[in-house]
Amino acid sequence: MERFLKESDNYPLFAKPNNSYRSHGAVGIDGYDAQRSVLKLINGEELPIADFAKEAAVRRSYLFQEKMVPHASLADISGASLSTMRVVVLYGKQGPELFRVVWKIPNKRNMADNFWRPGNVVAHVDQHTGKVYTVIQSATAGFEEVGADNPLGQRFLNTEPPLYREAIDLVMAASRVFPMFGYQAWDIALTNNGPLALEMNHNGDVELLQVGAREGILDARFQELLDSKGVTLKNAKKRIGGN
Question: How much is the pTM?
């Protein structure tokens, strides 16, 4: 691993463990300082190459990818870290329907935009207007809603995410490739080259869709999807151990 990193001419890189999730162990690497034998990270920090190699050995395997450049409009907030949109589609008999949109905005000191990282932001987007209607910031002890009197609120409330329309068009087209999945949670990166599909989860986390959203997900449209799949919540409380 050390030899690969020392000899690589492919910086910047994005690395993540193959056997991890929620961005645990993920790291963006700008380059290698041979004189001090340290990796220069995208958030301005440095990491001894021996320490990274030791961590990689514990995790057994790492995936190295080309580091995407984030959309220029977010550089002051997110630095070199990618911002993504979680776009959820419900796929029924009439085809794909846009259900929820959450914009994830990383703090520039964080490697990824996952909401568990303190300082990161999730902004809920009205899918009819494309405008942000709530801004929630993660903190060490939980999270808090950010209002218009806060710089983050002033920056994002009632605005449209960059590349929003292009990202939605991408998801609506791509979702038709997977009609077998009634619930599709897409992660779309907002890059300087346009929207980029990172992944689609057919069982994506629903908590993110509800944190600060002022509504749960069990609306008429979601209930219709459950009904079409033969899913009932009649005895849900009993099944999970409730009274």
Answer: 0.88
